[in-house]
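Example for tutorial group B:
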């Protein structure tokens, strides 16, 4: 459903997923191209009506959070990116990510090695 959202709704939703829980002002501050406060509140209301966002009263106003776990949303977005830009190849996507030049910590490298070993051992 997320891929079918209009561009601005998707941007607000993805910002909220990144922040996990925040006020409309927090979402607005997290946008790369900020909208008016009323526009952010309208988009959050639309997302709430679609069942993607929930709100709860907080000490600083309503706090919004994604209904689905962020990991679930991220996995779907990553799958779409791999399908779109890497012809469905997780290995090509991983190679591209590693080629961005960020240095891995020893813990990250060990975790990647374990995941590669598990992927190789999986049966189709």
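The residue assignment follows.
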């Amino acid at each position: 459903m997320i891929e079918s959202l209009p561009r601005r709704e998707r941007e607000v939703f993805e910002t909220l997923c990144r922040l996990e829980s925040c006020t409309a002002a927090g979402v607005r501050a997290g946008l790369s191209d900020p909208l008016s406060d009323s526009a952010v509140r309208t988009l959050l209301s639309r997302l709430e009506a679609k069942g993607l966002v929930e709100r709860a009263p907080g000490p600083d106003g309503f706090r919004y959070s994604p209904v689905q776990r962020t990991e679930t949303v991220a996995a779907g977005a990553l799958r779409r990116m791999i399908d779109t830009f890497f012809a469905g190849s997780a290995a090509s996507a991983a190679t591209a990510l590693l080629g961005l030049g960020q240095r891995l910590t020893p813990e990250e490298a060990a975790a990647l090695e374990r995941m590669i070993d598990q992927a190789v051992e999986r049966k189709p």
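The mean pLDDT is 87. Compare this with the pattern of hydrophobic and polar residues in the output above.
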